[in-house]
Write a structure and sequence with these properties.
Blueprint (H helix, E strand, L loop, with lengths): L11 E7 L9 E2 L5 E2 L7 E2 L19 E5 L10 H7 L5 E4 L8 E8 L4 E5 L2 H4 L8 E5 L13 E2 L4 H6 L3 E2 L5 E5 L1 E3 L18 E2 L5 H7 L9 E8 L5 E14 L10 E8 L4 E5 L5 H5 L2 H9 L8
Parallel strand pairs: 12-18, 13-15
Antiparallel strand pairs: 1-5, 1-9, 2-3, 4-5, 5-8, 6-7, 6-9, 7-8, 10-17, 11-12, 14-17, 15-16, 16-17
């Protein structure tokens, strides 16, 4: 069991609402120079959830589940900043108004291009939601520390999720962390250079087909834990040889140059203190029994209750 400072963490209730889908006023252009017009950021996305493939959708930067915002008029200002910074992956979100009142979901992460916090709810719950409904996130996790591994820094990670990640201690200063995919440093694009990772995300570029095939990047799913090689996220998103960062996939692939599936950082270190271990089930859907895992279980006549 990893020792943490969980008892010292500050807990907030954060209020938000579903944010309507965004659209561009004109054509977008992909990395090959071709124009396109596709569904994109935001919305109550009915048919996309944790555990689904982040590739193959007729969309660009699609956010699974419900894209939540505190203020649609000031996306880059207070209180949106607070909702983004304090909401952590694995936190519980509860709907407190409307037809879906009382239903609960799980925070998947946040997207910097929209300033949305992305929450997974079942399709049945999403179909009862409206854009005026209120969602409260029980925010806990920012400021989390690993007492015996001070050089490994958590961000945006709920202590509840940390306990379920099957992290294994393999030495005085090394942790094995299950991931579905190992991403080479050269693939990290939009978002590199941000001053901190307590909000937003950054993208895994997928414009080079050979690299996508070599590393199996097109097998990534929403909610996957992935290892970002040679990336140090302690004081912003930076390249550093030997560093390792672990993130969660929060939005779909993109056709735009410099973009691709988005990742919210949850663990980072400046050296090889994190050892990624490939596990196809290193995904929030599998860990919490939500998303595609919940849907599959229901089809078989059983299933876990949505977290």
């Amino acid at each position: 069991m990893l020792r943490t400072n969980e008892k010292d963490l500050v807990e907030f209730l954060l209020q938000c609402q579903p944010g309507p889908p965004k659209s561009r006023a004109s054509w977008s252009v992909d990395h090959r120079g071709e124009p396109f017009l596709l569904p994109s950021i935001g919305g109550i996305t009915l048919n996309v959830q944790a555990g689904d493939s982040a590739f193959g959708l007729a969309g660009d930067h699609v956010e699974p589940g419900v894209s939540c915002t505190a203020d649609t008029h000031k996306p880059f200002d207070h209180p949106n900043n607070s909702v983004q910074i304090y909401s952590c992956v694995g936190n519980t979100a509860t709907i407190i108004s409307g037809d879906a009142k009382g239903e609960k979901g799980v925070v998947l992460g946040h997207h910097g291009g929209s300033e949305h916090v992305i929450v997974d709810f079942s399709r049945k719950v999403k179909e009862q939601l409206s854009y005026s409904d209120t969602i409260v996130i029980h925010a806990k996790g920012q400021g989390l520390k690993l007492i015996d591994y001070p050089e490994i820094v958590p961000f945006n990670l709920s202590p509840e999720l940390l306990k379920k990640m099957k992290i294994r201690q393999v030495g005085d200063n090394t942790l094995e962390v299950p991931v579905t995919t190992v991403v080479p440093a050269a693939c990290m694009g939009s978002g590199v250079g941000a001053s901190h990772v307590a909000k937003g995300d950054y993208d895994i570029m997928t414009s080079d087909e050979q690299t996508v095939r070599e590393y199996g990047l097109d097998r990534m799913r929403f909610g996957d834990f992935v290892a970002l090689l040679d990336h140090d996220n302690r004081y912003g998103r930076a390249y550093r040889q030997g560093a390792i960062s672990i993130g969660v996939v929060v939005h779909s692939d993109s056709l735009v140059a410099g973009h691709g599936p988005g990742v919210t950082t949850v663990l980072t270190c400046a050296g090889p203190m994190i050892r990624p271990v490939v596990d196809p089930k290193a995904n929030i859907a599998d860990i919490f029994g939500i998303g595609t895992v919940l849907k599959t279980a229901k089809k078989k006549g059983g299933g876990k209750k949505q977290a």
